[in-house]
Amino acid sequence: MMERHIARKKVKDIMTKDVITVTPKTDLKTLKELFEKHDFNSFPVVDKGKVVGVVSKLDLLKAFSAGINVSLGRFLKLYSNDISDIMHTATIFVSPEDDVAKAADYMVEFKLRSMPVMEGGQLRGMVSRKDIIGCLMIE
What we know:
- It is a single chain.
- Helix content is 33%, strand content 23%.
- It is an alpha+beta fold.
- The chain has one domain: CBS-domain (Roll), CATH 3.10.580.
């Protein structure tokens, strides 16, 4: 029988530490450009030094999927909207000292692709499915 488990590592050992953040006032055009430039599924939304939400590629896609017959005027208006219109304010997070298994459990339970790593109310990094998959041990 094949044994499967997650290596006993801490989130701090696998997280991305140099995190790109956006603000609630960042417009959707800029958000689109950030997703094109960086290989991240989501960005933490930070206001006055505090994480106030998360915005993902799916959130951006949903904003533009109101139907096939979207007028040019509505399309341009959507582009000028800011992230506060589409971000999630209820944020699931882990701490740097949490086990990677806990992060994996949260991702499965809440269907997340990535999540913030927080400590003392401050953003310390982001952890993604890709990071966690690197810790899978199959023997």
